[in-house]
Write a structure and sequence with these properties.
The chain is globular and about 70 Å long. The chain contains ten helices and 23 strands. The protein is an alpha+beta fold. A hairpin with a 2-residue loop joins strand 2 and strand 3. Helix 1 packs parallel to helix 2 and helix 3 runs parallel beside helix 5.
Length: about 475
């Protein structure tokens, strides 16, 4: 742990050559991962991380360095090296720190990492048994339970001291099916920032059967998806990854401030259909992407990004906000002490609309229904994207019909957002990890069931008919 006196000395040293902001980020973290393959325990790994990141800013310049451990002499040396990047007179000094108080929404009182290993293994094996018993064509299962707990302390030249705890738990199942001619995979996970009761109350067997085993087997016999322009209905929850990737990153100040986003200077302009409103909300209690307070010392906020199709707000960190003449709004995040923070999403979703999922399907004569996505690519500067679908079906005469595989959605974020013509009332969230310049951070994506009236679908199944 770093004392207030040492933090003051280090910050004043970092500020000595003209920086207008300085920050110390101290992290003390421990993690555990249990991996099971084909029902057998492969390994149980434990790790401990202790380190410090030091950042100074001057106008629109940022300098960052990090170190393992917390040795005083190393930290003083790091501050001197960072200060050497500038060569002007001191502008600021730190005298004392005030503890920043905030509303605590995350449950860290009962760490999942401290739950007995046997309980976690039992949870895994319950799901693995269901998967292995589902069909003899399932040839391999890989499952895991990961948990972590970290304490973060931030001192900055605004004379703030921020202390927060974070804990996480992830249960993951995957299955590989083979018919001798090809391989298909099913995959699902459940993530929480709450305590272990979340997993005790989880229907593990249904998750393993319906989201993992069933999908792996279904895709073995599914026909190839047809291609061409067509209506696409995107299911709720994890379907929101398309909005997250195609539009969410382009609404982060790290892209907007530098003119690297298709939405730069588009505030108060229409960027989506009038039936679309979207939020980034880090205040949802115990949700996977939620934060109590961000790395700039701003409390978490619920931000209305798009209101009735009009761009209303960006996700802003203080540093990139300098170029935009705006202050941060609870969006500053990083993976760990090795990364400088920047603007990042938390729980980002399209809000509920007025249609029911049944009405949306019924209103679609011929098209594609997709409820799961694989990896994809997106260019925030142009908005172009390409996403693969892990679970998809053909819609015929207002009914969900045969499953298809190999589907991909191709287009631009401008196109897809303006072409959304129906939004459901069944909002759900899906948890995952998001990678960017400040590392990999936990986020939720989300949306209700919605319809894009026309989008290009890639596939090897010929023309839809």
């Amino acid at each position: 742990m770093i004392s207030n006196k040492l933090a003051k000395d280090v910050l004043n040293l970092a500020l000595s050559t003209g920086a207008d902001f300085a920050e110390i980020y101290h992290e003390d973290a421990r993690s555990q991962n249990i991996r099971v393959e084909n029902g057998k325990i492969q390994n149980i790994n434990h790790s401990n991380i202790l380190g410090i990141g030091l950042r100074i800013l001057k106008n629109n310049e940022c300098y960052y360095a990090s170190m393992d451990g917390e040795k005083k002499t190393d930290l003083i040396k790091l501050a001197k090296e960072l200060a050497a990047a500038l060569s002007e007179e001191r502008k600021l000094s730190v005298n004392e720190f005030k503890n920043v108080h905030y509303k605590k929404r995350l449950n860290t009182s009962s760490p999942i990492i401290d739950v007995a290993v046997e309980e976690k293994i039992d949870l895994i094996k319950r799901g693995v048994k269901v998967i292995m018993d589902y069909d003899p064509r399932i040839v391999r299962t890989i499952s895991s339970f990961s948990s972590s707990f970290k304490t973060i302390t931030i001192f900055n030249s605004k004379e703030q001291k921020i202390v927060r705890d974070e804990q996480r738990g992830v249960l993951l199942f995957s299955a590989i099916a083979s018919d001798g001619m090809g391989l298909e995979q099913g995959y699902a996970s459940k993530n929480t920032q709450s305590d272990f009761s979340f997993f005790k109350n989880l229907d593990v067997e249904s998750l393993a059967r319906d989201k993992v085993a069933k999908i792996a087997i279904q895709n073995l016999t599914a026909k190839e998806c047809p291609s061409g322009k067509m209506p696409v209905v995107i299911g709720n929850g994890w379907g929101g990854v398309l909005f997250h990737e195609a539009c969410g990153h382009a609404l982060e100040a790290s892209a907007v401030a530098k003119g690297l986003s298709v939405f730069t200077d588009k505030k108060n302009q229409q960027i989506a259909s009038s039936v679309v409103s979207a939020y980034d909300d880090g205040t949802i209690e115990n949700e996977w992407g939620s934060i109590d307070i961000d790395d700039d010392g701003h409390v978490s906020q619920k931000k209305l990004l798009i209101k009735d199709g009009i761009l209303n707000e960006y996700m802003i960190d203080d540093y990139n906000g300098r170029r935009m003449n705006e202050v941060g709004n609870g969006s500053t995040r990083r993976e760990n002490y090795r990364y400088a923070p920047t603007s990042r999403m938390t729980n980002t979703y399209i809000a509920n609309g007025e249609s029911s999922p049944e009405e949306i399907i019924k209103a679609t004569k011929l098209g594609l229904y997709t409820v799961g996505f694989l990896g994809g690519q997106v260019n925030p500067q142009t908005g172009e994207f390409n996403f693969g679908c892990s679970e998809a079906y053909i819609i015929r005469d207002g009914k969900i019909c045969e499953p298809v595989k190999g589907a991909s959605l191709i287009g631009t974020c401008q196109e897809i957002m303006l072409n959304i013509d129906m939004v459901g009332n069944d909002l759900d969230l899906g948890a995952g990890m998001c990678g960017a310049s400040s590392g990999s951070v936990p986020v939720c994506v989300g949306q209700p069931t919605l319809r894009v009236k026309e989008i290009t679908v890639g596939g090897r199944g010929g023309k839809l008919q």
